[in-house]
Amino acid sequence: MNKHLGSIDRIAEWAEDLTEIRWDIHAHPELGFEENRTSDIVAEKLAEYGCEVHRGLGQTGVVGTLRVGNSTRSVGLRADMDALPILEANTFGYRSTYEGKMHACGHDGHTTMLLGAARYLAETMNFDGQVHFIFQPAEEGIGGAKAMIEDGLFEQFPCDVIFGMHNRPNLDVGKFAVRPGPMMAGGGFFDIHIEGIGAHGARPEVGVDPVIVAAQMVTALQTIVSRNLYSQEQAVLSITQIHAGNAYNVIPQTAHLAGTVRTFSEKTMETVEKNMGRIIKNVAASFGASATFDFRYLFAPTVNTPGEAEFVSDVVAGLVGEENVDRHGPLIMASEDFSWMLREVQGAYFNIGNGGPDGNCEVHNPGYDFNDDALTLGASAFVKIVETRLVGEI
Ligand SMILES: [Zn+2]
Ligand SMILES: [Zn+2]
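Above: inputs. Below: predicted complex with zinc ion.
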């Protein structure tokens, strides 16, 4: 099979160049807000292609702009640049050279695909209006999208619509998936600090055991999803950390719980947070302990505007055929901080197949790798979005 099926011919010619860029970024992964080398590469390439380049939004963010004609119509395209604190298990030649850091979510591929689109659009200029190529830092839970917005992203670079793309393992290369309305969950992280009274392990009656409180709290918190939410509402509450004590014969003074909540609406997130607060305070009090609760709402739900989801589906169907586009893909419980951009500007977030399951494990796994066979197709999808949306006056 032609690996570049569905790709624009000219972009297919650049397959090796794009792969080289992707491998270079993969070998030098940088964590959120530390993407100095990566953003240097992005800025250099954009300038080389002929884009206006703007740096410093959201610290390491980069925006490239192309303008054709006098129209103020505009499209924003977004890629993320950050890596994860994971020790790479892959052994291929371009594996991470930075110990303990890894592109395990494919943002190396996303950045490369958007660079490919910028190169093509700068060369052909076959559109009427403005395109903003938005390279954002720190997608992985530390607020890169918000940081760019707070630095004036959409005031300086107004976008009528915005689109973002993420690879999806277990979706064949050559396929796309999108969904109108909610697509990915909103997410929050929380910490619970329980204060008891430490004592000798043999004399619990003179202390207040925070381990018992933590155990009751974990169980009680699980009733929120099953008992406090409407049954059609989807939500997850996971306690992912329990820390207490460090001796066999000491009842510790404190215990610490932490975890995450995912929901598809902000209202449901508020309901979960409110009920957590009530349970935490009262479970602690019922044992004579006290507790503090810190909840950080980090990701809004990713909600596509129906018109833009349909538009993207039509565009990619034009590249790969209707049979390779899932217009009503599944709800995804993971979160994505492109959601903050979609709260400001209408648009859509969509998935491109990364292949698998053979040899292509899930994102955030130490054996994950972006599939280079998707590079030219992803770049072509971004290009066609622009050329279709910003078609010249007829
Ligand atoms: Zn990720
Ligand atoms: Zn990601």
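The pocket of zinc ion (ligand 2) is lined by residues 105, 107, 139, 166 (CB under 6 Å).
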